[in-house]
Amino acid sequence: MTDPIRVLVADDHPIFRDGLAMLLATVDGIEVAGTAADGAEAVAAATRLLPDVVVMDVQMPRLNGVEATRRLAADAPGVGVLVLTMSEDDGTVFAAIRAGARGYLVKGAEQEEIVRAITTVAAGGAVFGATLALRIAEFFAAGPPTPTDAFPQLTAREREILELLAAGRSNAQIASVLYLSPKTVRNNVSNVFTKLQVADRAEAIVRAREAGLGR
Length: 215
Description:
Number of helices: 10
Mean pLDDT: 86
Helix content: 40-55%
CATH class of the largest domain: Alpha Beta
CATH architecture of the largest domain: 3-Layer(aba) Sandwich
Structural class: alpha/beta
Number of strands: 5
Strand order of the largest sheet: 2-1-3-4-5
Number of domains: 2
Low-confidence stretches: none
Strand content: 5-15%
Shape: elongated
Largest sheet: 5 strands, parallel
């Protein structure tokens, strides 16, 4: 008899988190090792419990799911991460993949699809759902993004600010160059971090330079 697949469910919505945990607990071959209410809890619980798979939401307090995934990839590489979230925009999908997620499903997926994805990730495979898999294939077929089509989720102003961030400008310098108030720059920088799912300025600069900005 094979050991059950041990799963940790991380989501900040109690009804969804507990509901999914109860649902998975009824599935033969799956054992719910624990739950977490935010990204920081998910990292702590996963490094302690070492489940086979973490089912990870993206938008969570304290630490978002992308950053939590990145930390787990470094601290507990044997733990597979399956992202299960409301968002299917390309920025979030590719941020999760870059962080080390081995699966990505959109909430609303059928129970059978979630169970199959957990089983695949636990076995070392990758799964992204039919629609997302097609978009991922198209993305790589198109080659690396050019600076003009990278980060479509940003507004023109946010993109302009990201370009200056990537060039190494401080907030004060950006405010001076664009004739904006420091508060407006701070707000836009915060929006950029949120939309790119990055934790800090350094990570935003790396993402921007990878896409050809700030050169």
